[in-house]
Known about the structure:
The structure holds two protein chains of two kinds.
Chain A: E1 4-11, E2 16-23, E3 27-31, H1 38-46, E4 53-58, E5 61-65, E6 70-71, E7 79-82, H2 94-99, H3 106-112, H4 128-140, E8 146-150, H5 158-175, E9 179-183, H6 186-192, E10 195-200, E11 203-208, H7 210-215, H8 220-227, E12 229-237, E13 243-247, E14 252-255, E15 261-267, E16 273-275, E17 285-297, E18 300-305, E19 308-313, H9 314-320, E20 327-332, E21 338-341
Parallel strand pairs in A: 3-9, 3-10, 7-8, 8-9
Antiparallel strand pairs in A: 1-2, 1-4, 4-5, 5-6, 10-11, 12-13, 12-15, 13-14, 15-21, 16-20, 17-18, 17-20, 18-19
Helix pairs in contact in A: 3-4
Chain B: H1 2-30, H2 33-40, H3 43-76, H4 82-94, H5 97-108, H6 115-120, H7 129-153, H8 157-165, H9 170-199, H10 202-207, H11 218-228, H12 230-258, H13 265-268
Amino acid sequence: MDALHVSLSHPLRSFRLELELDVGRETVALVGPSGAGKTSILRAIAGLLQPERGRIALDGETWFDSAAKLHLAPERRSVGLVFQEHALFPHMTVAENVAYAGRERVDELLGLLGIGALRDARPGELSGGERQRVALARALARDPAVLLLDEPLAALDAHTRARVRAELGGLLRGLRLPALLVTHDFQDAAALAARVGVLVDGRIVQDGSPLELIAGPTSPFVADFTGGNLLRGLARIAPSGLTEVTLADGTRIFSTDRLEGHVGAVVHPWEIAVAREAPADSAQNHVTAPIASLVPVANRVRVRIGPLTAEITAASAERLALRQGERVVASFKATGTRLVPL
Amino acid sequence: MRRAFDIALAAAAGLALAFLLLPLLALFVRISPDELLAALASDAALDALWVSLKTGLVAHVFVLGVGTPAAYFLATKRFRGRGALITLVELPLVLPPAVAGIALLALFSRRGLLGAELDALGVQLPLTQAAVVIAVAFVAAPFYVRQAVASFETVDPTLIDASRTLGASPARTFWRVALPLSATGLGAGSALAWARGTGEFGATIMFAGSLQGVTQTLPLAIYAQLDIDPDVAVAIGALLVLVSLTVLLSLKLLPSWTRFTSASLIRSAPSGSS
Lengths: 342, 274
């Protein structure tokens, strides 16, 4: 049974939002670049934006139906919307913010989100992660039937982000509510949602589980959006002039990008070569690990090796006779390794 | 060269200050504090104080009561001609008070636009205390409405949206979110309107006349007492200087007070544009 049904058509600045979506008791993520119409979808569901055409219903209770000229006011829809910038009321304390939507569950929710000690603080005194939790507690105080999250991690600094991502994932699984979140970050979507829809120019170009999207992208955009490998590590400038990144397991990789501190090393799957032994070639970086999976995609094979996904031709995979569980060496060049600050 | 320029600037500043403050100072120097208090206890001064307080309060309640929702409407609704409407509301700000007086007469006097209708209802406004209230409200309201529109406009629309998705009706959203977040600006507008209303002279004397104990407010009493007992006129003048100073100081202190109670201080603080 699908709990939330959304079908809508609405003109935005440079394209038309065309969406058909059903969300059951699960977390669905819509990912896409900025300006793809993600926030407009959430606003339409919450009743803050009236779409030109379409129908929005929850368990058969219709919230919006352009054919029947029905448009329920936001306060009459059972939604909890967590705004990107949290939108906490600055003149109220944390407890007052949460109680604004419903007094009964204030203590329970403050406890659930671990912010009981902050109940008398004002939003201006809170850190990004704390504000996020207050916004979540406030959205849940109304006991909503649907939870909507607009870029729930975007307003957080990179350090807080990883922690909040894990917490939020646990919370969403525990709530068992139909939840729809939008984000421009595929990693966030993959961590939080069981189902991910990729939104480009107002349309969902592909949806499926995060693994399905990574393994079988149907468009270059989705491939690009989902494909990059991200290796977290600590970077320092090595005597050779290259940047040396030490990963959590002690593996060292090199990049020609100059950056220090906590970094993510990004390498595209098609820049990774797979061999049975470390080759004596120009590649600086070698990661040795067992093959976790082999997924054929058209004439290529996606090979998962430890933290990396490599893409090699089907012919190469056959020639090497790769098998799941075998230890192989993934090699890629320092010049093809991009560093991003975390 | 630079030194001479600095001296010239300082001299101009000194001259300006003297020009603006010496007349006010003269009010307090002319009579002793004892004489001042005695003059304020005169019938004319007490009557005027009573008329001013009563009419000012009624006018102010009217200005806040109608002006606040009107300003919220102008600040939050988008419709054709909104800009023009806001400009029209501000017109009395720059209107000469005598024009305000003659305009009110043109509408409300027996031969005015609504004269026949009011006559039929047995209502006669000119030369009554109600006329003072109307004149004061007419000249003071734009000061409040203009500031209130600006304050409501600075409330983050996301907070209004958030309130609605949290189950609050538009009315509850107004009371619990928009109003408290605009409080500083509304307070500033209220103080400005009160100051303008207290000093109102031209429109009142034309529309309501200057009957002691009925329509003679403090500024009208100054004018009337000038020929009868100049000391009373001076004493009332001194009193109004203190009232004005209080209004000004409260305007200056309002933002720093809000700093301790609200995180949205800068946003809703009175802007320099008023």
